[in-house]
């Protein structure tokens, strides 16, 4: 038997969430910088790069003892949100001519 209760486990989850959000903020700064370097909306979406990232994090998940399926789905959702952010940053820098 353990003395740990649900509050202890949730405190641990909350601490992990603080780390995750801090790392998402760090990742966001790099993603926005990458978006500013790209020439058009297709380059922002970079579908080949998305698959590379997903392959890489599935391997990292295996090594770390995380479920690769959970990690892949988390990353696809996160990258989708980052693509929207990059597109809005890109659009503000170079308003679309509607032909991309
Ligand atoms: O690697 C890039 O080019 C990025 O902009 C980063 C990132 C990502 O979040 O991983 C975001 C948008 C692209 O679709 C591909 C990958």
Automatic annotation (TrEMBL):
Domain of life assignment: Bacteria
PROSITE patterns: CHORISMATE_MUT_2 (PS51168)
Entry GO MF terms: chorismate mutase activity
Annotated signal sequence range: none
Keywords, comma-separated and alphabetical: Isomerase
Biological process, per Gene Ontology: chorismate metabolic process; salicylic acid biosynthetic process
Species of provenance: Labedella endophytica
Protein name: Chorismate mutase
Matches recorded under InterPro entries: Chorismate_II_sf, Chorismate_mutase-related, CM_dom_sf, CM_II_prokaryot
Record has NAD as a keyword: no
All residue ranges annotated as the Chorismate mutase domain in the record: 1-90
Entry-linked SMART domains: CM_2 (SM00830)
PANTHER family for this protein: CHORISMATE MUTASE
